[in-house]
């Protein structure tokens, strides 16, 4: 039966023709230079080498697959000096059958990871760092020779397509197997109780008998019914079933596989927004980049979980997993906790005529590797592609191609794309996918909060049948920069919060929009940037790059989206004040907030999420806010002149990535 051997631990690594050093996988060589600004991080070929003992396996009945969760951006794999695989695309998983190239005893594996500049593999131009390396885990998988196998795009070999039918669900399953045999399958609930009949199919052994090749058989199983189906209902009840399938040959089970799935129905309506299982389900979303301070993209499962928990604490019910395929663990968490996902490929900023094949293979991998995740509700085909595209015709052709590919591979999910701010509503690229969304930073890159309402209303008036969303909106906010008169571009925590206060109200005026995604949940590295006094970073996160500081804007969203009682005093890090009367802003999801200075009650207020108290500062105050049994504290001191450390040293919005 299936076994997995992790290939972590120490590998010998060489960056370009530099000296060999020992590193631990997962690893990226851009953990430091990809985050320190200057747009000068090293892009090239890094080689990784490891000696390992051939695993124990039965050559008659088993195969050895070397599996990579992610090698950025392209990879070449050599076993004992022979090239055994090549892969383009730094965010999807890929595997190679190394059985025939394995020697008895010691073997040498060498992997070249390549993030050098080229015109073929996406991404090449974007506002984030393209970390190079084997930055996700590597495994040896001992697999049965005759097995379920999704083939070259890395699928599990099982595709589950449930459909709601009255109180029941009809579940169609397609499977791909190496060689013939008898497949049997049934569905169980989370307690392991069988909830469908067992279906059986006998498959003739023709065409798929060579386990080393991609030759495999596609088999449609007879449909199964789940009576009184329990739906996957987002955060409220993310119920999942398990499909259990076995493959038998000559009366003996040779492979078995279990795949979780959910039953749910999605619909996007241009006049009413997003629907889950026939009910309106407004998407309160954030986007997520995966990288971290000092670590880059080579993050651990615990870090994925920490990100996920922070997003759950915020109360978001949807995530745009930007701008590429994320780790499987993250999609699994979204499935488990009912978070609706926008999944996408890194077809971004610039259409490359030579990159067509790569957009297609990355899209195929995204869909095939993720088809069974109930959380994924839309496929995103590109981001801001008009920003610097030269060959418009070729770009549009490619968009049509990708859109059709998604529909053909997955008729159940709508497609979407994220348009660039300067891409007008009439641009043909905005009218290809089923739904559309814009990255708009009105009130940040350009002045005028009100423009958001204007833009949304105009689009809806002209294209009432096109579902519109906001794929991105945001503002930079540095937790160390402060102002009591915040202005656009000052990078203060206070302006960021004001901007988001406006945007949340704005979206409530257009409840027909199908989605909105804060850009971004976390600060992330963009080595070409130089803003906020910390080069190499995009600071639009609600949480800092090291995940240690939740900015005020985080609590604003929490006040809107989360049911867990809390109270938060804003501008806490803006301790040294010159004003006599302090305006203390408080965010809470409780209806009543009380503020104390020491033991003295200053006031009590009823309100809606945002509360403002006037407090005489004197020499300083030590405040305590209470709401719904929760408390928060802050200290403000009086100083005679403004503390210069709160003000941005750089002028204006200095180096942007474009
Ligand atoms: C673009 C891009 C994002 C993001 C944003 C920004 O809209 O899609 O990757 O970084 O710019 O912050 O300006």
Shape: globular
Strand order of the largest sheet: 24-25-26-27-28-29-30-31
CATH fourth-tier homologous superfamily of the largest domain? Glycosidases
CATH class membership of the largest domain: Alpha Beta
Q: What is the correct CATH architecture of the largest domain?
A: Alpha-Beta Barrel
Measured by DSSP, the beta-strand proportion falls in: 35-45%
- Measured on Cα atoms, how large is the radius of gyration? 26 Å
Q: Helix- and strand-based class?
A: mainly beta
CATH domain topology of the largest domain? TIM Barrel
On the 0 to 100 scale, the average pLDDT is 96
Distance between the termini: 51 Å
Main beta-sheet annotation:
8 strands, parallel, barrel
Q: Runs with pLDDT <50, length 5+?
A: 207-214
- State the total count of DSSP E strands: 41
Classify the helix fraction into a percent range: 10-25%
Secondary structure tally, helices: 7
Bound molecules: alpha-D-galactopyranuronic acid
């Amino acid at each position: 039966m299936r076994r997995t051997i992790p290939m972590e631990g120490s590998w010998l690594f060489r960056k370009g023709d530099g000296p060999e050093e020992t590193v631990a996988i997962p690893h990226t060589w851009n953990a430091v230079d990809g985050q320190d600004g200057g747009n000068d991080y090293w892009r090239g070929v890094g080689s990784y080498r490891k000696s390992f003992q051939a695993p124990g396996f039965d050559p008659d009945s088993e195969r050895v697959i070397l599996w990579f969760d992610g090698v950025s951006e392209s990879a070449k794999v050599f076993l004992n000096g022979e090239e055994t695989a090549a892969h383009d695309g730094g965010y999807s998983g890929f595997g190679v059958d190394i059985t025939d190239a394995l020697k008895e005893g010691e073997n040498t594996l060498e992997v070249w990871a390549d993030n050098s500049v080229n015109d073929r593999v996406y991404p090449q131009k974007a506002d984030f760092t393209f970390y190079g390396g084997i930055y996700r885990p590597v495994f040896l998988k001992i697999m049965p020779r005759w097995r379920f196998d999704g083939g070259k795009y890395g699928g599990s070999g099982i595709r589950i397509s449930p459909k709601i039918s009255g109180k029941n669900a009809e579940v169609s399953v397609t499977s791909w197997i190496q060689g013939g045999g008898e497949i049997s399958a049934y569905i169980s609930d989370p307690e392991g109780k069988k909830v469908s009949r067992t279906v059986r199919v006998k498959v003739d052994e023709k065409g798929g008998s060579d386990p080393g090749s991609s030759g495999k058989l596609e088999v449609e199983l007879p449909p199964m019914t789940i009576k009184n189906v329990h739906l996957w209902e987002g955060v409220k009840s993310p119920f999942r079933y398990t499909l259990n399938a076995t493959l038998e040959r000559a009366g003996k089970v040779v492979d078995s596989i279990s795949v979780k799935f959910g039953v749910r129905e999605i619909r996007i309506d241009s006049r009413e927004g997003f629907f889950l299982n026939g009910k309106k389900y407004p998407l309160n979303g954030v986007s997520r980049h995966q990288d971290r301070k000092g670590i880059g993209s080579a993050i651990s499962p615990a870090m994925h979980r920490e990100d996920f928990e922070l997003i759950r604490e915020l109360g978001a019910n949807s995530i745009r997993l930007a701008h590429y395929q994320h780790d499987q663990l993250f999609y699994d968490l979204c499935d488990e906790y009912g978070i609706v996902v926008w999944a996408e490929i890194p077809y971004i900023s610039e259409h490359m005529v030579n990159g067509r094949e790569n957009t297609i293979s990355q899209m195929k991998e995204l869909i095939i590797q993720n088809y069974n995740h109930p959380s994924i509700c839309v496929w995103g085909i590109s981001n801001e592609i008009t920003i610097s595209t030269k060959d418009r015709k070729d770009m549009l052709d490619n968009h049509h191609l990708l859109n059709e590919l998604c529909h053909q591979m997955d008729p159940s999910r709508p497609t979407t794309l994220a348009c660039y701010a300067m891409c007008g509503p009439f641009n043909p690229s905005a009218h290809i996918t089923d739904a559309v969304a814009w990255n708009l930073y009105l009130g940040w890159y350009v002045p005028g909060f009100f423009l958001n309402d204007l833009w949304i209303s105009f689009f809806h008036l002209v294209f009432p049948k096109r579902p519109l969303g906001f794929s991105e909106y945001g503002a930079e906010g540095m937790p160390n920069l402060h102002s009591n008169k915040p202005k656009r571009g000052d990078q203060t925590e206070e302006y960021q919060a004001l901007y988001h206060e406006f945007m949340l109200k704005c979206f409530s005026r257009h409840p027909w929009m199908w989605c909105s995604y804060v850009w971004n949940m976390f600060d992330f590295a963009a080595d070409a940037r130089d803003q906020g006094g910390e080069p190499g970073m995009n600071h639009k996160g609600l949480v800092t790059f090291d995940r240690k500081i939740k900015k005020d804007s985080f609590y604003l969203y929490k006040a809107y989206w989360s049911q867990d009682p809390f109270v938060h005093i804003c501008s806490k890090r803006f301790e040294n004040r010159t004003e006599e009367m302090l305006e203390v802003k408080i965010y809470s999801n409780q209806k009543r907030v009380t503020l104390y200075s020491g033991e003295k009650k200053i006031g009590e207020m009823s309100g809606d999420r945002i509360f403002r108290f006037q407090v005489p500062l004197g020499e300083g105050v030590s405040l305590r806010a209470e709401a719904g049994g929760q408390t928060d504290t802050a200290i403000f001191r009086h100083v005679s002149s403004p503390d210069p450390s709160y003000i941005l040293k750089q002028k204006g919005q200095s180096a942007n990535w474009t």
